[in-house]
């Protein structure tokens, strides 16, 4: 996995390759399993944290 910072710094260089990759996924109708996995964390914003 690439950190967001790396993608941001290399956006212009990576964009054509990522675009091609995404278009291929849509054309074939297959998405890599790793893209279907996420880590979700709750972020406390305000109010009673334990309620």
Give your account of this protein's structure.
- This is Reverse transcriptase domain-containing protein.
- It comes from Dreissena polymorpha (Zebra mussel).
- With 51 residues, the protein is mostly helical.
- 47% of the residues lie in helices and 0% in strands.
- The protein has a domain of 26 residues.
- The N and C termini lie far apart (36 Å).
Helix and strand succession? HH
Mean pLDDT: 87
- Inertia-based shape: elongated
Report the structural category.
mainly alpha
DSSP helix count?
Answer: 2
Unreliable runs, pLDDT <50, ≥5 residues?
A: none
This entry's quaternary arrangement is: single chain
Strand content: under 5%
Helix content: 40-55%
The Rg value, from CA coordinates, equals: 17 Å
Largest sheet: none
Total DSSP E strands: 0
Distance between the termini: 36 Å
Organism: Dreissena polymorpha (Zebra mussel)
Protein name: Reverse transcriptase domain-containing protein
List keywords for this structure.
51 residues; single chain; 2 helices; 47% helix; elongated; mainly alpha
What is shown here, in short?
Helix content is 47%, strand content 0%. The protein has helices spanning 4-9, 11-28.
């Amino acid at each position: 996995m690439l950190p967001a910072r790396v993608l941001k710094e290399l956006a212009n260089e990576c964009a054509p390759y990522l675009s091609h990759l995404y278009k291929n996924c849509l054309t074939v109708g297959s998405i890599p399993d790793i893209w279907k996995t996420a880590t979700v964390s709750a972020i406390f914003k305000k109010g009673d944290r334990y309620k």
